[in-house]
Amino acid sequence: xxxxxxxxxxxxxxxxxxxxxxxxxxxxxxxxxxxxxxxxxxxxxxxxxxxxxxxxxxxxxxxxxxxxxxxxxxxxxxxxxxxxxxxxxxxxxxxxxxxxxxxxxxxxxxxxxxxxxxxxxxxxxxxxxxxxxxxxxxxxxxxxxxxxxxxxxxxxxxxxxxxxxxxxxxxxxxxxxxxxxxxxxxxxxxxxxxxxxxxxxxxxxxxxxxxxxxxxxxxxxxxxxxxxxxxxxxxxxxxxxxxxxxxxxxxxxxxxxxxxxxxxxxxxxxxxxxxxxxxxxxxxxxxxxxxxxxxxxxxxxxxxxxxxxxxxxxxxxxxxxxxxxxxxxxxxxxxxxxxxxxxxxxxxxxxxxxxxxxxxxxxxxxxxxxxxxxxxxxxxxxxxxxxxxxxxxxxxxxxxxxxxxxxxxxxxxxxxxxxxxxxxxxxxxxxxxxxxxxxxxxxxxxxxxxxxxxxxxxxxxxxxxxxxxxxxxxxxxxxxxxxxxxxxxxxxxxxxxxxxxxxxxxxxxxxxxxxxxxxxxxxxxxxxxxxxxxxxxxxxxxxxxxxxxxxxxxxxxxxxxxxxxxxxxxxxxxxxxxxxxxxxxxxxxxxxx
Length: 593
Hints:
Blueprint: H1 22-25, E1 45-48, H2 50-56, H3 64-77, E2 81-85, H4 91-102, E3 111-116, H5 120-129, E4 135-143, H6 146-153, H7 157-178, E5 184-192, H8 199-213, E6 221-227, H9 234-247, E7 254-260, H10 267-276, E8 281-284, H11 298-307, H12 319-330, H13 351-373, H14 378-384, H15 415-426, H16 432-449, H17 455-466, E9 483-492, E10 498-507, E11 510-519, H18 521-529, E12 536-545, E13 554-562, E14 565-573, H19 576-591
Parallel strand pairs: 1-2, 1-8, 2-3, 3-4, 4-5, 5-6, 6-7, 7-8
Antiparallel strand pairs: 9-10, 10-11, 12-13, 13-14
Helix pairs in contact: 3-12, 5-7, 7-8, 9-10, 13-14, 13-15, 15-16, 15-17, 18-19
Pfam families: HMGL-like, IPMS_D2, LeuA_dimer
Cofactor: Mg(2+)
InterPro entries: 2-isopropylmalate_synth_dimer, AIPM/Hcit_synth_CS, Aldolase_TIM, IPM_Synthase, LeuA-like_post-cat, LeuA_allosteric_dom_sf, LeuA_N_DRE-TIM, PYR_CT
């Protein structure tokens, strides 16, 4: 044996040299950046663009009923700014905007945003769609980056700037002409492709637009700085946002907004860094829908805040219902590993993870019980104990999930997962050595049959191994084993120690009546079994109640040595004493299989 380091990585052969480092293309001078030392202590303003950016990215865009379902969901969740479409782009979008107005579906405190390019006929059509909306924001955008200036539009910097300025003027003029005086009207400007644009030029165009809109006091302007295509690491975007926030005039009348895409997979991190850098608002989609790799995931962003003790100002207490509505409306499934919302995100299959979670829940239950003993109500006690749980960043209950799916069993699972699942589904509290024994049985099952073992299947495996059919009728198992306990009568000698026991036992189909005395019921039972020719010694015994009330049952776990073989038996019965007898019979039958 000798020691050595791993072999080095080898050249890929891919044409990496055709790509330029982002900071070789875009210059950012911010040596005194302050955002890394900031913390996010309050939720930003949220804008959902599910009905615009999210919808336009679908293979089959949503119809009016699906759009309405999403709109109603967003309102219910608490969104106060919702971008509902591009009314001038299609009759479908225009009609949807008008349907919300005609149906009175827009709450007075919800601002509707609509998108337009800087073309007169598009602006007129967009404003016409807004007639009757209580709160309306028109969102103007045009691309500023060198690539778009030189290749797409073939316009110089002055021409691109004037395009934004002219569009702003036209929006203001048309709004003055067609909107009611009671309409609360707002304006948003996006220098599209912001991250690829020279910062001084982005600032120049934004200032020119501001000079036309003249923001002051409540007449704010929303300046949206999009990572239209994510090009660099999140810290670079944060530098760009902080630079703009520092240099923008009339900053107190500017809502600095973020619009992140996820091309490099770091849209959420970039948005969080952008908030630390001074932004006030985030645009995105539920579950990260949107063009290419999607917009920033607002669910993840909001619940990241929640996990840090910050109110997200959005109601995500029934995450599965939110997911179901979005999946039905869009025809796109939320992947099972999606943060907070995926089917498997609160689930552990690994044995070591399961064991840690099981112990974590036990510790938390003790802490919560202590707070209740101090006089706190159940809900108050839950909040009073800070959440600290292995592998679970938030409490699944807080987003409407149950604990039943937290631990699931497959071939990678260990005793902790098996014990946790039986505990949550069947109230069984298996002793540690029984956990180890049964986990090996489950391991053999998964190795043989593969796949996941759910709660029902786990109970079937357990009952088949430890219980006769009568004790687990729903498992649909056949009777098994040589012995069956039919009855037991116990009498005491009076000194509360010695017991005399008479049992009725079926041995291989033959009914027998056995009697014996012993130091307690269990000792007497084992003595009575000696007449069967088997040597049984009790090594450990644990029992607990499974339920309370008239139909209460008890579970007993007995570790036995049967003719030199050590194994466990399990018994369930309304009588604790009888359940212990059944546990011994369980061990005997298992030894003779």
